[in-house]
Protein: Ankyrin repeat
Organism: Thraustotheca clavata
Amino acid sequence: MTSILTRYVNGLEESLTEELIMKFWREAFDTDYEGDLNILPKIKNPLQPQLLKYIRTRRMYKRYLQYLKHNYDDGDWMYSRYYDDYVTAPNYSRVISIRHTMAVPMKFIWLDELEELLNYPLALAKAAICGGHVKILDYLVLEKKVDIKRLYFREYYASDPLKSLFMNTVAEEGHLDMFKYLHAKGIQAYSSNAMDNAAKNGQLDMVQYLHDNQLGGCTTLAMDNAAVHGHLSIVKFLHRNRHEGCTQVIDYVAKNGHLEIVQYLIENNLSQCTYFTMDAAAFSGHLNVIKYLHENRTEGCTITAMHYAAENGHLSVVEYLHNNRTEGCTRKAMDDAAKNGHLDIVKFLHKYRAEGSTTSAMDYAAKNGHLNVVEFLHNSRTEGCTTKAMDFAAENGHLDI
């Protein structure tokens, strides 16, 4: 079977998404790709840990550093900063900037690549903790005499001491081996934020470990975070094993289109629907959620549902609401659809509904350069426009309008 990277190099992959681009680079790193890295599509964040962890050899590491040098501007985004002191407060400690790419030599303990940073063992230790690099941290403890029990905070905030407890950060990022290492060393620098944020990021193993070992507990934010971000397995685990529950989070879950979680929350009486639940699903165009709520619930929606769907270009939702529900809409639906250039929705509302539009429809279609919408409104409707239409079009350089 031809790899996706080979397909791209041979011009067989046409539709490039950020997810697919990530797969290209992961495969390039994992296979130690021999070809020219410059022919691969640029990735938005070339320093993300979930990408760098696939680099396996020094050769690829060196090649990628050169690629970054020639294709991306050097700037603050390439670094994280750590205090090289146990006292982690501004004005008391020396700040060391550590490139995100140093995650690779930290992972493999390439001491020659880390030579300069080894002069700042506390800063390097903090970077190792945040990145989940247990081996280099253990090296620093044994060889550089880093007193790990004094490393509680990445940075101390007097107003919120829990904000950057190291073990909260470790839990949030899902570095289970690092959490176990620190815990085995007797460190208890964590709070309920650990499980709350691990749940948000889908770190089920971490959530289970924290629960099983009674480390920090959690708040309702844990299930809220997991539900909103689509982590059904964590929602189920928390419901079956803990008592905190969640808040009125179902509206946000519906907005994000997580149908299975919407169903689970309802079936287990964890979060109550309101009319805004369907409105929220309409905002993001999640027709499957809308159908489920329509067929299984009685809360319904408001006219805002069709307004949202029209404004955001979700024709299938507009059609479904029109055919299956009675709330309808106002002239705002066509106005907003026109403003955003959704001609198909403007045509649908014109053909099947009686609310019409206002002069704002053509005014703002003109402002945003949607000539096809302006032409349709002019030829098919009677509301017309105001002098704003030409003013807006001129201001924004839409000479054709």
